[in-house]
Design brief:
single chain; alpha/beta; Aspartate Aminotransferase, domain 1; Aspartate Aminotransferase, domain 2; 2 domains; globular; binds 4'-deoxy-4'-aminopyridoxal-5'-phosphate; EC 2.6.1.55
Amino acid sequence: MSTQQPDPQAGAAVKAADRAHVFHSWSAQGLVDPLAVAGAEGSYFWDYDGNRYLDFSSQLVNTNIGHQHPKVVAAVQEQAARLCTIAPGFAVDVRSEAARLIAERTPGDLDKVFFTNGGAEAVENAVRMARLHTGRTKVLSAYRSYHGATAAAINLTGDPRRWPSDTASAGVVHFWGPYLYRSHFHATTEEQECERALAHLEEVVAFEGPQTVAAIILETIVGTAGILVPPAGYLAGVREICDRYGIVFVLDEVMAGFGRTGEWFAADHWRVTPDLLTFAKGVNSGYVPLGGVAISAEIAATFDRRPYPGGLTYSGHPLACASAVATINAMAEEGIVENAARIGESVLGPGLRELAERHPSVGEVRGLGVFWALELVKDRVTREPLVPYNASGEAAAPMGAFAAACKKAGLWPFVNMNRTHVVPPCTVTEAEAKEGLAALDEALTVADRYTV
Ligand code: PMP
């Protein structure tokens, strides 16, 4: 598929310029060793040396429609020729249409859309809206969560990426969400886990003082912190707690939204409607930066006469909105959400469970759609993780060896702590999914060497 002849010299030049001038995110600058990417198409990308990778990471779980979808590329080109930029205060066709298409698909009465440039900014604004709507300040979020890297969003994040930026966390309180495999509540069944996680959350609300809590924010299905699918009844239970105490319920669907789970939104699996829903990534597969908040009628009404204090120069950028319109239309026309559901049910789910039977390093398989995790362990009986929590350097070597084995087998993995996330584009074909499973099979033999 690679349309380019290998050109290692060009790759070396790209990399040399990168190392000279690009300051990389989340990285020790002296240690980064980025792959120089020459191109991409569909479920694959390739380097300058002639290596092609099956993208089982969807980059940062955003290329739901695959790389270089021709309809989205054409829409960006056409929009660029017509109107590249216009300030957020004007009404412009692609922005109106993107908002309409999103509002049509979001659950319940989430019919107004505030556009942002990405996920963290969506979270920042959802929190601001909730605080202004309620007149309260505290926000509750889960320890096992990721909500973004800007000021409020990183504080809301529960995982260790929060630690270096934890100083401005006024008003943020963390709680434990459900995670039966490593239950914080000593539960042994889904029902127990659900009931106890809800009781715990309600107790946190009681001890914080319900009249001080503006919002509870959750990832509908926890993404980077583990692909944790909530037990049946959990989200409905959180909805009830929010209703009982007048708390704004925010669902963060930045990663789980727009087809990834085999529904337009993960909340659709449980028919739950939040008050605010944050999105980004899959809305236009990241072809141009875009995110946003879908807002309930009640919260939108708060800002009917009172100005909403937020927005950036590029909010609702025409190129981003044009790519969202093209993405959503292509997803609908080509049955891409249905494809994600079908591949999850008939290929990835059964295939990953079959791998778990043969590989002692697989502790748990969980997920749905094209949103799965293999949690790797040293010992299936004790469930000791293959690498310790938040390990780095030598301590993380087993996961490093596993990731290297994936790449050698032609698969680009999404590795986080002791897990590999299996997150191909929603457009992945059955043959590609099987190719990925075969590569994981090969790489898991490397992980198995570290088991007891
Ligand atoms: N929320 C969730 C659930 C995410 O997964 C992410 C990004 N991985 C964010 C928010 C932040 O999005 P962004 O990186 O676009 O700011």
